[in-house]
Specification:
6 helices, Four Helix Bundle (Hemerythrin (Met), subunit A), flat, mainly alpha, two-stranded antiparallel ribbon, 6% strand, single chain
């Protein structure tokens, strides 16, 4: 290929990359109809577990070796990061279901739903801000309540089963 053709191709590529962006209109959500509050429940259980691990972590004595202080700080940082990620995941999962699945008919039938979602968001934030096991357990309780309503919107009976996780707790699942 001649150098003129290469120069022309590079010029055309530069024009394509550098041109003014065009406005594109598209529907970004695919109406797949696949929604399940299970992930939000697992995320809430993870918040509980991280608070448990933080509570169980022994603070090294002032005279402890620097490595012990570093290991403690590392564990606290990791547990806190995971707790915060999963509290945010609760909010994300609930937000997607509420925004993409819940309809006006659902909120008419379950008028407590908007307030419940608001409480979940606030409780997830509260669980992120501290290490209170009670706050984390309250988050799970609210998410379980949401899960029960979710399945009722589909006319599906539910039951509570042990989570089988180290955090304990239960999961709301279809019966």
């Amino acid at each position: 290929m001649s150098s003129v053709r290469w120069t022309e191709r590079i010029h055309n590529l530069a024009l394509a990359v550098c041109r003014r962006p065009e406005t594109i209109y598209a529907h970004c959500d695919i109406p797949c109809g696949i929604y399940d509050p299970h992930e939000a429940q697992i995320a809430a259980l993870t918040v509980i577990r991280m608070d448990q691990l933080i509570a169980e972590l022994a603070v090294p004595a002032a005279a402890a070796k620097p490595e012990e202080h570093a290991a403690y700080a590392s564990k606290i940082a990791r547990y806190t990061a995971v707790k915060e990620q999963h509290a945010e995941r609760v909010k994300h999962e609930i937000r997607v279901i509420y925004g993409d699945y819940i309809t006006a008919d659902h909120t008419a039938k379950f008028p407590q739903l908007p307030e419940l979602v608001f409480k979940i968001f606030k409780q997830a934030s509260k669980a992120r801000q501290g290490t209170s096991l009670g706050d984390a357990q309250e988050l799970l309780k609210l998410v379980q309540e949401f899960a029960e309503i979710f399945w009722k919107t589909k006319n599906v009976a539910v039951r509570r089963v042990p989570s089988q996780q180290k955090s304990g707790g239960e999961l709301v699942v279809p019966a």
